[in-house]
Amino acid sequence: MPPPEKDVVLQMRNVCRSFARPAGGPLLVLDNIDLCLRDGEVLGLLGRSGSGKSTLLRIAGGLMEPTSGEVSYLGNQLSGPAEGIAVVFQTFALLPWLTVLENVELGLDALGLAPEEARRRAMAAIDLIGLDGFQSAYPRELSGGMRQRVGFARAIVVQPTVLLMDEPFSALDVLTAETLRTDFMDLWIEHQLPTKSVLLVTHNIEEAVLMCDRILVLASNPGHIAAEIPVPLAHPRNRLDQAFHDLVDEFYSILTSRAIESIKTQSQIYGGLHVLPPVGPYLMTAVIEAVAQPPHDGQADLSDIARLPALGAKDLLGVTEALHILEFAELKAGGIKLTAAGKVFARSDADERKRIFKEHLLRFVPFAAHIRHVLDEREGHIAPRVRFKSELEDHMSASDSEKTLRTVIGWGRYAEIFNYNDVKRMFSGN
Ligand code: ADP
Ligand code: MG
After folding, report:
1. 392 CB within 6 A, ligand 1
2. Looking at ligand 1, which atom is closest to the CA of residue 27?
3. How remote is the CA of residue 149 from the centroid of ligand 2, in Å?
4. How many angstroms separate the alpha carbon of residue 19 from the centre of ligand 1?
5. 171: pLDDT strictly greater than 90
6. Which CATH number does 281-428 carry?
7. Which ligand 1 atom lies nearest to the CA of residue 275?
8. Angle (CA) 172 175 177, round 5°
């Protein structure tokens, strides 16, 4: 392996990763990833759900091995978790019987410090991350935001050279997430964190533009780096600046064109079978209604949709993808445009909406039509969940099959094309 570039802290070369599928050959999830994390930067990894972000982060953290390719940390090959690399996850498994202080001290277990030193360091991390006064509290006494602060403290307490963060704000409500982001960036800008470099994994474009110095766009099927875009804005950044807005729009248009491509390739690979995003009919309805109204009148930029209250912290691209698959809207570079059917849907009453939804579901989601067909054919009009699950698993990973099945159940129930009993795990016709 050639020597690492100067200032490179963590590097991946030609990294590929595949997973075994329950049926069929291996599923390639990461394809030929080259990436370097440099001293002093916050590097963003932006991609839709399922693009392989968490897999990449786990490999970077030594928590998972690549199938092929190399990972090096400070010039040495990485094999297993390394001292100096810490991870912040979306949510933390805090031990409920331990206090905040004790939970943070857990992060230090592997270092074998003297108890007084461990305590001193844990208290320092607690102060830094804004948990001062909560050291004796138990996790159940904390809000979601405070619990996530404990997660940050547990990562920072080891004074890591590299901090890997996997969607650390995405399980929080919008306001709490913003507060925690701002607090984190204040510490970073003022060099108060004991950390050289940060890798931030996110599906949230504004978050990436707010926090990162450079952003890699991870496109899916299989995950590969589709673009690298520097963010030349000075800190602290302001979401209301024109330059901020322009960059966000640029990312929306890159990601939407990637999403369109990915829906097309999925249909080709799986023969009309899509991995369905985890989005329910009610959220889709809210977005259709909002886009149909003035000032949008049927057409909106994704940055406008991102600000809809109904969307909250939910996955914006997931919703737009769902609308695209069902042909209620057309996904275009940087925005969506309602189709004629989408506009009719927006004007209709509840019963008529159900009817339109049903028609589109049966027409544009072949798997939903297939379930319905199987139920029609079968005596008693019932079929077990596992049957459809294993059919999906012939084409996609177990977790994508699970996600797709859950979504199709939600859509099918709303459209009343079938019933599903959660307890018996059975589909039935009606
Ligand atoms: P992201 O974090 O971008 O949502 P992930 O890295 O979690 O994406 O997953 C990428 C793909 O890899 C998905 O199709 C997922 O189903 C699959 N995958 C992830 N982990 C495993 C695993 N342990 N076994 C099998 N498939 C997996
Ligand atoms: Mg993930």
Report:
1. no
2. 26
3. 19
4. 8
5. no
6. 1.10.10
7. 14
8. 40
Domain spans, the chain: 8-253, 281-428
Q: Which two three-digit tokens encode residue 101?
A: 């202080």
pLDDT band at residue 182, thresholds of 50, 70 and 90?
Answer: very high
Task: Establish how many alpha carbons lie within 13 A of residue 189's alpha carbon, considering only the half-sphere containing its beta carbon.
Answer: 14
**φ, ψ of residue 93 in degrees (nearest 5):** -85, 90
CATH superfamily of 8-253: P-loop containing nucleotide triphosphate hydrolases (3.40.50.300)
Per-residue pLDDT tens over the stretch 52-73: 999 999 999 999 999 999 999 9
pLDDT at 172: 87
pLDDT tens for 222-271 read 899 988 999 999 999 998 999 998 898 888 888 777 777 777 777 666 66
Provide the 3-class DSSP secondary structure of residue 9: strand
Task: Give residue 246's identity as a one-letter amino acid code.
Answer: D
Tokens of 90: 């979306």
H helices of 271-315, where?
A: 281-292, 302-306
Indicate yes or no: pTM above 0.85: no
CA separation for the pair 223, 57 (Å, rounded): 13
State both tokens at 304: 């406008």
Locate 387 and state its tokens: 């049957």
Spacing, Cα 99 to ligand 1 middle (Å): 33
pLDDT of residue 313: 61
Please name which of 239, 242, 162 lies closest in space to residue 205, comparing C-alpha atoms.
239
Ligand 1 close to Cβ of residue 202 (< 6 A): no
Instruction: Please determine, for residue 219, whether its predicted confidence score (pLDDT) is greater than 70.
Output: yes
